[in-house]
Specification:
Blueprint (H helix, E strand, L loop, with lengths): L18 H7 L7 H33 L4 H49 L3 H6 L2 H21 L1 H21 L1 H8 L2 H38 L1 H6 L3 H53 L5 H42 L22 E8 L13 E8 L4 E6 L5 H8 L7 E6 L2 E2 L5 H7 E4 L8 E2 H5 L8 H11 L2 H4 L9 E2 L8 H15 L3 E5 L7 H15 L3 E5 L3 H6 L2 E6 L2 E6 L1 H7 L2 H9 L11
Parallel strand pairs: 3-10, 3-11, 6-9, 9-10
Antiparallel strand pairs: 1-2, 1-4, 4-5, 7-8, 11-12
Helix pairs in contact: 1-11, 2-3, 2-6, 2-11, 3-5, 5-6, 5-8, 5-11, 6-7, 6-11, 7-10, 8-10, 8-11, 10-11, 15-17, 17-18, 20-21
Amino acid sequence: MSRIKQEMFDDLNGKPFDPRVAHRLLPYLRSNLVRLGFSLILVFVSAGIALYTPRLLGKIVDKALLPRDMSLLYELTLVYFGLEVLRLISVFVQSYQLQRIGQMVMQSIRKDLFARIMRMPIPFFDQNPSGKLVTRVTNDTMNLSELFSSGFVMLLSDIILIVGVIGAMLALHFKLGLLVVSVFPLMVFAMFYFSGKLRVAFRSSREVLAKLNGFFAEQMSGMPVVQLMEREKFERENYERFSLDYREKQFKGVYLYSLFHPTITILGGISVAIAMWFGPAYVGQNEIALGTFVTFLAYAQVLYQPVRNITDRYNIFLAAMSSAERIFSLMDMAEEPGLRESESMSRRESLGTLRFLDVNFTYPVSEEPQRLPALQNFSFELKEGETVALVGHTGAGKTTITSLLFRFYDPTSGAIELNGVNLKNYSKKELRERIGFVQQEVFLFSGSLRENLSLLRRGVSDEEILTACEKTGFSRILAKLPQGLDTILEERGSNFSLGERQILAFTRVYLQRPDLLVLDEATSSVDRESEILLQKATQELMKNRSCLVIAHRLETVRHADKILVLERGQLRESGSHEDLLKRGGIYAHFVDLQGSSGNLSETTH
């Protein structure tokens, strides 16, 4: 698999508008085309009313106020009031519809993005911080929601207003219109100048926010360790540093934004002042009527508002395009390969012999060229029905072997064969269904106990679950629970003890009925009752199965058909418990150091 570059998730500095990205957004709009079309019609309605009301004000002055025609004044006032009500209704409806479109598009993209992330290979998660992924699923999809709810449609409305106001003023009186519009180029310059500065400022703040999210997620997942090591003050200071950095970046954006709005307001005031300075002269020369002058004043006030809005819409548009590009770049990444039907295994077919043939592997995380391999020229054979134990110091390569077996990673060189066929030729889904894995660190999901027990085999009956609980000894724990299988597990199963969680994991794998069992033995201290239950569960699981055991206790090692002693990714010794003791090598040294109740993987190197 090719290396996955974290840089792909950084803000992309490409074209402000990429037609290919916009084209990929269209499928998410298909179910909302009628609603979008209706909103566009309402945009034209509200813009048309906004452009007509200054004309109506001028007409009220010329046709009703000056001639003192009160009946016409009341009539035109009612028309003005009716148009304003109609405009407010159209703005409300279009805003509501666009917000609905934005939320529906965001939900669809977020669903697809999460589904895609769930199918990504393990190296992807090794190389991309959780904070950045959280930002993609939350902030970037929110940017796209804003694009549809208050972005391009409202941008269109502002453009219509600007073009309409300028055109109307030039049509009413070209000279006065030209004088009033002379300020417009300065508004455009200010708009693009501040837009560029704001884009840089908010891009910087988003980068810091991703780091802040990642740090927070890391601290929450490691809170027991933080408190155990009394690092609360240290981590709080680290968080404050990230938070202050984010605040400063936000302050810069807020400062520019606060500067931009008064700038546009001042320029808008200048355009009104120009109209007020030159307008009366044209009225006195009878070139324009007083009502037309009032219309000019109203248009001059209308002009600066869409210019101010258009900068906000433009920044929303750019942020959304950048977010869409990042989202689709993630979606285009290579996911875990699908099923390969040509090498599909029958459930009745035996898994046969597992072979590692001269396997080398280096984790694709670091850019350092001198990074040491996790496995070097590693070979071994696990025949059907055998138990092979892996022994070695922490970092010797034991967990790497299980990761390669489940194809979380593929070997850098060499091959892994199952029943004489390269592991790469098997479906990952089917392979993982046939191999059970009891991890040292048990992960439980929030939900019912029944859901957690049947996680590896959907549709299993309660009767089968209860039978499995009897076999593994979990029934003694289940009997103490008033709600039985309906008991709700809290986050990560925190309302169960460590020993109970471990026995639950054994029961879950027992229900899976795997052909090959990979067992990472628990090393944590548990009470005597839990230890007895764990031994029972272990024996029941290993019965009549091929077993690969990451051994931490001598009890399991003694009964293994073969013991593999690893050191720094290399196989140093291989043989039975008695054979290795007679050799007096690394394994015998482990036994001498730790004794019969020792932990084999935590010896001093």
